[in-house]
């Protein structure tokens, strides 16, 4: 790639300056930093697009922030942002533009790809989705036996599943409560069987969501769904048209499967799977929350896009959070990031972020194929609070690893119940406080602990965290949060000069599985792999009793 710098970013002057600075500040404790600057918590915060970010509990000084900004500039982050929004083919290894931002561009905007404005096409699909969703939600769309559709089952995997599941759970409060939504992803037959065991075929619609329409898991599940549907509807092939719709870029394969392209909702090769929940892949979301709710979600995404595109770096939420994540990862050696939403509806948000962050930034080479020269994407994980506090938080507080945390809280509960919400929020604030300031041996002793117990009850503190506060979990708020993390990922990838939009690392296993499938037949010739894989295949053949 001609615009990739010749050297890894870690060999440049901005990185060297950060390394020197890190050696100077790494021993500083957040206790001292707050003591010497009593207004730190009011200073190191940023509010934009309705999100309040407190980043004061990171192990940073004003100089750290300046040096990180310098790194962003030296790495060409501004140019990369402009290139993405311009529709340049920044996914170099696949030769594609990266334009999920076009999916939420308002009607009338112009974003060009290969000389054509893609925005009108986006709105054409959205309008078709809206029309379809309203027909299904109102009962105007009838199933094969004339009954209305009450159950929607999305069949997809990876980017064609994680976003839809997460968004459905997140926006359940706003969803049509007279309908049931299920999601089938795993090729493990249990997933399909359990998702459909209490459903009636004549009230059930399947959305087959697959960009390529060739994915093994999805096509296997789609065929099982077809069989299940036809069995429940008397075997009449014409029933498929009333009970199956497709979301795909592959019209030919959709027709071949037996779904009319009238019932197909398209998207484009410039939408990556893990960036597609706001494309037609979000059809189940729209069916759940309605077209207005979906448009509100898109408006939230767009507000964050505009903030990312236009705000100066020092006031730019995704840039700042991306840089802080990089500081913790590359300079403090933090190998993971915990995302801890204090909002039950966001229970699938960490799982969603795992794909977004790890499939995007789990890369070992730069855009030009040269070695990246530093650690790239950290492991993302998490669970909603307060549940995690009663399990893995022990390790975050007193373990030997540094685990930066992103806490997410909301000012208002969607389900006010007694003082539950105050209790929830008291906990999120308490966790950030405990992680940062800990509890010294002196404080433990002063409470009367015997000497031998003091080390066990001491909290070292100095554990970094961000706290994000929003008013309320609405569709718009969800869009802003997802776009925030998309652009955090982008920021880091731009600095490391990696391709955040390909996923070659998932290919090898898929190819090997295809080779193994026929070998599982007991009558097949002896498998021809390494001795471990051969023995596993042989044992499986015995265990399955064929
Ligand atoms: C996401 C990945 C991957 C993809 C799935 C499903 O960025 O590309 O998770 O979404 O493999 O692919 P299909 O939508 O083509 O079935």
Mind explaining what this structure looks like?
With 546 residues, the chain is α/β, with parallel strands linked by helices. 47% of the residues lie in helices and 10% in strands. The protein contains 22 helices and 13 strands. A hairpin with a 2-residue loop joins strand 3 (112-113) and strand 4. Helix 8 crosses helix 13 (283-310) and helix 15 packs parallel to helix 20 (475-496). It is globular. It starts with 12 loop residues before the first helix and ends with a helix. The model has no long low-confidence stretch (mean pLDDT 97). Bound molecules: glucose-6-phosphate. Glucose-6-phosphate (G6Q) binds at residues 157-160, 210-212, 215, 218, 272-274, 359, 503.
- Distance N to C terminus: 52 Å
What share of the residues does DSSP label as strand, in percent?
Answer: 5-15%
Q: Compute the average pLDDT.
A: 97
Which hetero compounds are present in the coordinates? glucose-6-phosphate
Largest sheet: number of strands, sense, barrel closure: 6 strands, mixed
Question: How many E-type strands?
Answer: 13
- Helix tally equals 22
Structural class by sheet pairing and helices: alpha/beta
Q: Which word captures the global form? A: globular
């Amino acid at each position: 790639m001609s615009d990739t710098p010749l050297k890894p970013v870690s060999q440049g002057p901005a990185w060297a300056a950060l390394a020197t600075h890190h050696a100077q500040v790494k021993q500083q404790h957040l206790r001292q930093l707050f003591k010497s600057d009593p207004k730190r918590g009011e200073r190191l915060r940023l509010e934009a697009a309705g999100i309040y970010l407190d980043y004061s509990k990171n192990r940073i000084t004003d100089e750290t922030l300046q040096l990180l900004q310098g790194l962003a500039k030296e790495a060409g982050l501004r140019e990369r942002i402009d290139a993405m929004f311009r529709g340049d083919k920044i996914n170099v290894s696949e030769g594609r533009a990266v334009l999920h931002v076009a999916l939420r561009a308002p009607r009338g905007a112009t974003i060009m790809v290969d000389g054509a404005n893609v925005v009108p096409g986006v709105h054409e699909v959205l309008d078709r989705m809206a029309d379809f969703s309203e027909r299904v939600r109102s009962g105007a769309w009838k199933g094969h036996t004339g009954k209305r559709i009450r159950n929607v089952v999305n069949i997809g995997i990876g980017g064609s599943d994680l976003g839809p599941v997460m968004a459905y759970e997140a926006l359940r409060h706003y969803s049509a409560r007279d309908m049931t939504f299920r999601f089938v992803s795993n090729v493990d037959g249990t997933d399909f069987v359990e998702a459909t065991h209490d459903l009636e075929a004549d009230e059930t619609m399947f959305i087959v969501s697959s960009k390529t329409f060739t994915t093994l898991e999805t096509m296997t599940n789609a065929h099982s769904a077809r069989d299940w549907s036809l069995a429940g509807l008397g075997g009449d092939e014409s029933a498929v048209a009333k009970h199956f719709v497709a979301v795909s870029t592959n019209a030919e394969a959709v027709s071949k499967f037996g779904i009319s392209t009238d019932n197909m909702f398209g998207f484009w090769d410039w939408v990556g799977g893990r960036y597609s929940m706001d494309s037609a892949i979000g059809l189940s979301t729209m069916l759940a929350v309605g077209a207005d709710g979906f448009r509100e979600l898109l408006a939230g995404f767009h507000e964050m896009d505009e903030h990312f595109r236009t705000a100066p770096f020092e006031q730019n939420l995704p840039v700042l959070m991306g840089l802080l994540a990089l500081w913790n990862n590359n300079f403090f050696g933090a190998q993971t990031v915990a995302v801890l939403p204090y909002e039950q509806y966001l229970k699938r948000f960490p799982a969603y972020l795992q794909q977004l962050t790890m499939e995007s930034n789990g890369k070992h080479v730069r855009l030009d194929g040269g070695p990246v020269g530093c650690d790239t994407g950290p492991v993302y994980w998490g669970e909603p609070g307060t549940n995690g506090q009663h399990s893995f938080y022990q390790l975050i507080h007193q373990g030997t690893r540094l685990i930066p945390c992103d806490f997410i809280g909301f000012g208002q509960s969607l389900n006010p119940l007694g003082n539950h919400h105050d209790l929830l929020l008291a906990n999120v604030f308490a966790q950030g406080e405990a992680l940062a300031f800990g509890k010294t041996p002196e404080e433990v002793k002063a409470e009367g602990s015997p000497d031998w117990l003091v080390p066990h009850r001491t909290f070292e503190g100095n554990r970094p965290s961000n706290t994000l506060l929003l008013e309320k979990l609405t569709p718009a708020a969800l869009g802003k949060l997802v776009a925030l993390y998309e652009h955090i990922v982008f920021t880091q990838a731009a600095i490391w000069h990696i391709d955040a939009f390909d996923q070659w690392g998932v290919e090898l296993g898929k190819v090997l599985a295809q080779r193994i499938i026929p070998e599982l037949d007991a009558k097949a010739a002896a498998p021809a792999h390494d001795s471990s894989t051969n023995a596993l295949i042989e044992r499986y053949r015995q265990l399955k009793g064929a």
